[in-house]
Amino acid sequence: MRIQINIEKQYDEIEVHIYANEYNVQIEQLMKQLKKNEVNVIDGYRDNEIHMLKTNEIYCIYAEGIKVFFQTEEEEFESKRRVYELEQLLGDKFVRVNKSTLVNLSKITSIQLGPLGSTQLFLENEISIVVSRNYLKKLKHAVGIGGN
Amino acid sequence: MGILIGIATLIFETGIVSFNVQLTLHFCFVTICVFVAGLVGSWFELSEWHTIWPVFLIEVIAYIIIWILIWLLTKREVDEINNLLQNRKRG
């Protein structure tokens, strides 16, 4: 098996292409391995204690001042990372909706246009988040892909 | 004046305040520019109010039209997203 790596600025997230002349067990195993490397668990902090949070239990990630928080169904944990770092780490499950918030795609229930033209995103735990116009298209794209 | 207004329009690119606030600020800035240009270019006379208000009326109407257009476009995106979400739940 030959391995070739291309590092170029244009790639926002890691893409893996597999070239072969037939589909076989080796390829299946490769794909299983690669899927395992997706980030499913991340470190959150509360009262100086570390908690390993499952990413599919995180509803949204938001920044308040310098601090970044994970919001689960009923609790909040702090993150030691910045929002943009988390955006890169969790890219396919979370989408950015405004300057300081990432939302878990699978936790979105609906989106509504308010009276003054502001767009509100509603999550399964009844939290609502304002979506800024610049990120609306990206959100649509992400929901479209996520749905397939 | 075009350059100044172009620079003012950049405010929409920054994510700082809400869209409505951005639009209002932009409107104020453009109004000031229009007023200054109008004085310099003799579009109207300061003493003759009836020469001044049509200019600003047109400006206000233009902004209202733009706001409505953007509202319609946003509504379309929101409806599309909700459709996608519905499809995702059904599928």
From TrEMBL, chain B:
Among its keywords, does the record have Transmembrane helix? Answer: yes
Q: Which domain of life is it from?
A: Bacteria
Q: Which InterPro entries match?
A: DUF3021
Key word Membrane present in the record?
yes
Q: Which Pfam families match?
A: DUF3021 (PF11457)
Transmembrane annotation, as ranges: 23-44, 50-73
Record keywords, A-Z = Membrane, Transmembrane, Transmembrane helix
The name this protein goes by in its record: Membrane protein
Source organism of the structure: Lysinibacillus parviboronicapiens
Upper lineage is:
Bacteria, Bacillati, Bacillota, Bacilli, Bacillales
